[in-house]
């Protein structure tokens, strides 16, 4: 294994000063999950129910106590117990409850996937919050693992971002979710060890992406993740500032950042808990904390959205956070390539030529094709420093990918076709779905340039493929590499069971956490 490249300036850069950022007054702590075995006897209750009167113990005892009042209510409302359906009923006489939200669990004999249990949990939580405006108590007579996945889904589905509301508008009722389950201890142990760290990673990542760009910029991104990683085992952090970038010849990321008052950063987190000497998985994220387009300035109409242009970087850090939280036995490195893309008297221009860390020169054709520039240095650094077993980049790279695949699939590109199927399958399994788009020699030809080695946009190729080819130019052909263009899926107002809040989806964490667990964890 290579020895890590330490230098005085790197060590100096790591010794960050912790300024209390302007946003830290209001926190947005992830919802806490409580497991208990005792059913409350009054108030509001969410009650999971299978089809065909296979109700489970909690429903049975409520039915008994209310002298068949529950049965009666079920008959009257024609509630069948199908998965993802629900029915709000008034608490039956003598049951003690004000209201009960019946939640369908489907047929008891049909095996459901982890994702289906998560969706049931998220859907139930969202409906309960709507109906009760209170922290819900949810009773599910299901085995421990299923219960844990319900809890996980509920925590994701209940995510909210209300820190900029005034106090009266903040959503206090979502502080805590209580799950009543038969195997309280097993559910809690499994949940705490395996799922809660991922849920927290997703909360932090969504928070980060949702933050406005006056609060979240390269340095504050670094400070926040540094806080989150503080005290975690097997973690080491390194941060390159603009001078380190110049010293290392990272002219591509430096050029993107040079127009901003908020200088670029490259944040590297190593999580080395696998076998010594095993090549790590390297994850590289596009971290444009705001993308105005630079001198090739964007249309103002949707420009505000470009605060999400750091979502790839956030999910990269989030994935490492999830793995470290689970104590996964694996070697992983996360790299966030951070810059703010602004027009100014010091900004780079179309036609400029920059030299990347790889030595390859790049002609800037559009300063709005900036994501691939920060990735050029991030990928080259990751590939050559770590000689990875797999390198994956996550980037809100092109409008083209988002037009092609919409909001349901991230676009996947690779030179290693055997990876395509594995990623598609893991996407289905985890809910972060991907679909392949082409990458071939023509796409690499399309970015050849007469002045420099390459140019940062290829007008004669589909935009998403040209972007992928550009990123691939900075990765050795022998390194297994997957490029995920998440421009369409990183954010949106569309809701689903595990996401009810508008904004960030934290796309990529579930996919990569699952992928690394399946193929790399020992
Ligand atoms: N951040 C944008 C891509 C984007 C666009 C993400 C819309 C989400 C929604 C990226 O930096 C960009 O501007 N890409 C250009 C590339 C072009 C100039 C070659 C694009 O897609 O138009
Ligand atoms: Mn852009
Ligand atoms: Zn961008």
Description:
The structure is a single chain. The chain has 522 residues and is of the alpha/beta class. It folds into two domains: 32-197, Leucine Aminopeptidase, subunit E, domain 1 (3-Layer(aba) Sandwich), CATH 3.40.220; 211-248 and 260-344 and 367-443 and 464-489, Aminopeptidase (3-Layer(aba) Sandwich). The chain has helices spanning 8-14, 57-65, 69-77, 114-132, 144-157, 184-210, 218-229, 242-248, 251-257, 311-325, 371-386, 399-405, 418-430, 441-445, 463-472, 509-519; strands at 32-36, 43-49, 86-90, 97-104, 137-139, 176-180, 235-240, 265-272, 281-291, 331-341, 353-355, 361-363, 390-395, 410-414, 434-436, 454-455, 481-485, 491-492, 503-504. It has an eight-stranded mixed β-sheet with strand order 7-8-10-9-13-17-14-15, with helices on both faces. A six-stranded mixed β-sheet has the order 1-6-5-2-4-3. Strands 11-12-16 form a three-stranded mixed β-sheet. The relative contact order is 0.12. Bound molecules: ligand BES, manganese (II) ion (MN) and zinc ion. Residues 291, 309, 366, 368-371, 396-400, 402, 457, 463, 487 line the site of ligand BES.
Q: List the domain count as a whole number.
A: 2
Helix content: 25-40%
Bound compounds: ligand BES, manganese (II) ion, zinc ion
Q: Over the alpha carbons, how many angstroms does the gyration radius reach?
A: 24 Å
Assign the CATH topology of the largest domain. Aminopeptidase
In this structure, how is the largest beta sheet organized? Answer: 8 strands, mixed
